[in-house]
Amino acid sequence: MSEHPDDSAPRVPDEVPDEAIIIATARDIGLTVDRSCLPGVVTNRSLLRRYADLVHGFALPDTCEPAFEYRP
Amino acid sequence: MTVPAMTDPSDALAIAADIRQGRRSAVSVMTATIAAIEVRDTSINSVTRIFGPRAVAEAERIDRRIAAGDDPGPLAGVPFGVKDLFDIAGEVTTAGSVVLRESPPATHDATVVARLRAAGAIPVASLNMDEFAYGFATDNAHYGITRNPHDPARLAGGSSGGSAAAVAAGLLPLTLGSDTNGSIRVPASLCGVWGLKPTFGSVPREGAYPFAASLDVVGPFAGTLDDLRVAYEVMAGGPMPELPAVSDLRVVRLGGWFGANVSEPLVRAIEAVAAHLGGVETVELPEIARARAASFLITAAEGGNLHLPRLRRHALRYDPATRDRLIAGAMLPSATLVQAHRFRSWFREQVHALFRSADVLIAPATVGEAPLIDQPTIVVDGQVVSARANLGLYTQPLSLAGVPILSAPLLGTGGLPLGLQLIAAPGREAALFALAGALAKAGLVGRVPLPASKGR
Predict the structure, then answer these.
(1) CA-to-CA distance for B437 and A48, rounded, in angstroms?
(2) Is residue B5 part of a domain?
(3) Contact B343, B290 (CB under 8 A)
């Protein structure tokens, strides 16, 4: 990404409503989110984002492989 | 004819001994069990279905085998219950949801159910749970809330809350549950019974409805430590190695994350255990907050993906609390899931490093006693947070490691049940049973009596 000049980055609104992101992301996986579900999904997505920030905030060596076939 | 004295209904091996030696029939045990559930479960709602006719028929077969001189096994005629995610041949496995209620009946028993039946035990009931095992409350929109037998105004914990409550109430001596983030350890602790989360991958999960395959483990609840051991050995397919001498075990206490937010009675109980062991060193595992986060994320992503096909078709049939969590999980970016799995590899190394200088770690199972049903919250770092999502504060990070953990009910806390996690290196369940046995002998841990029977 950094090899592109700043002015070539796509412009997006500063504040995209969470509901809009959820509807769009859900569409990518073939899911239509009923309006009645949106408040709960917003809350849970926000919680997961906080946890995601925690795991992304930890530097791992490139040699650290995913534990997809985990053996304790 | 004299009527034999009633064996403690919470002692599976005593029940089996009575049946094997002809002091009681398996049918009389089974009919008494069913009657007790019908009369007494109304106040706690731990049972979702009773397999009455088939359980009695199975008990009749046990009695016939004994009459013929056969030995049905170490758990002859012992009634047991299963969290409603274990397959029982001929029954529909609902996983606590109406979404699966129209599914065809299971064609085979779950492997662990089949092994227990081969040892003589008889499945008699399915037990309540959070829908699809996603929660720590056993507050189920379809099947109701399971109440804590020690105080029906309080949660039993979850997601295997029916399994813990049924043992705590003395309705069943032995039950099965599953633990992805603490779903055996949390309810076992809050209900004052024994529970075991075996080493990840060591007990077969075939026939147990999945939640998050990277973390799911199945295990037993019991009223006595000996019952827990026998159930575990049967489920695992063979006996454990000989228990080590307790004097040879290096026991340490987990501090840091596991020392914060703990209630005063629980701190005192853990200190009593530490004092009995001659004082134990306190150690810290690094990056526990991230370990919990990784476990949370893997669960959300795998659970969300598992349910995505059904969420596309009929999301509104789910319990709203489960549904919204699953939808959010299904949408997690792959970068986050992969990072969580990579963090797991790193964390595994830290756990193994700790076990180079320790054999058993001890840690609280929850922050304190069971929350009230009408106020289902706990306090973490001064903030009031949802109990359903946060009761696994101390269990969830350890799930990531996949190590075996025995949940020991603490005695003498002076109030509602509290539990202690005994944690060992992978495959070292024997060390857990050795330490738990010593603590039980010292009167520090054991099934917590119900208020009405205290002081008898």
Answers:
(1) 40
(2) no
(3) yes
Catalytic annotation on B83? yes
Q: Are residues B198 and B262 in the same domain?
A: no
In Å, how far are B113, B115, B131, B173, B226 from B74, measured between CA atoms?
15, 12, 33, 14, 12
Helix B288-314 vs helix B320-330: angle between axes, to the nearest 10 degrees?
110
Q: Report CA B418 to chain centroid distance, whole Å.
A: 14
Domain membership flag for residue B1:
no
| Nearest chain A residue to B403, by CA | A72
B323 and B274 belong to one structural domain:
yes
Do B261 and B171 fall within a single domain? no
Give me the percent of chain B exceeding a pLDDT of 90. Answer: 93
Report the half-sphere exposure of B15 (CA within 13 A, side-chain side): 30
Catalytic residue (one of B83, B160, B295, B399):
B83
> Chain B: residue nearest A36 by CA?
B316
Domain assignment present for residue B242? The answer is no
Q: Judge if B200 and B268 occupy the same domain.
A: no
B205 and B96, same domain (yes or no) = yes
* Chain A contact present for B349, CB below 8 A: no
- The total number of structural domains that make up chain B: 2
Buried b / exposed e over B72-100, threshold 16 CB at 10 Å, is bbbbbbbbbbbbbbbbbbebbbbbbbbbb
A70 vs B402: CB contact, 8 Å cut-off?
yes
pLDDT at B447: 97
ipTM of the complex in this document: 0.88
Residues B167 and B283 grouped into a single domain: no
Q: Closest Cα to residue B423, out of B381, B346, B364, B342?
A: B364
In this structure, the answer to whether residues B194 and B67 fall within a common structural domain is yes
Q: In this structure, are strands B419-424 and B405-409 parallel, antiparallel, or unpaired?
A: antiparallel
Q: Which residues of chain A are within 8 Å of residue B289 when distances are taken between CB atoms?
A: 54
Identify the bridge partners of residue B157 per DSSP, sorted by sequence position: none
Quote the minimal CA–CA distance from B384 to chain A in Å. Answer: 15
State what percent of residues in chain A have pLDDT above 90: 68
Q: Residue A67: which of B308, B325, B348 has the nearest Cβ? A: B348
Boundary-marking domain end, from B184, B208, B236: B236
Say if residue B396's pLDDT is above 60: yes
pLDDT score for A68: 84
Inside any domain, residue B448: no
Secondary structure letter of residue B449 according to DSSP: P
How far is Cα B107 from Cα B51, in angstroms, rounded to an integer?
Answer: 16
Structural domain boundaries enclosing B212: 12-236
B218 and B319, same domain (yes or no):
no
Measured between CB atoms, which of A45, A50, A70 is closest to B331? Answer: A45
CATH number at residue B263: 3.90.1300.10
> Which element (helix H / strand E) includes A38?
helix A38-56
Q: What is the mean pLDDT of residues B222-228?
A: 98
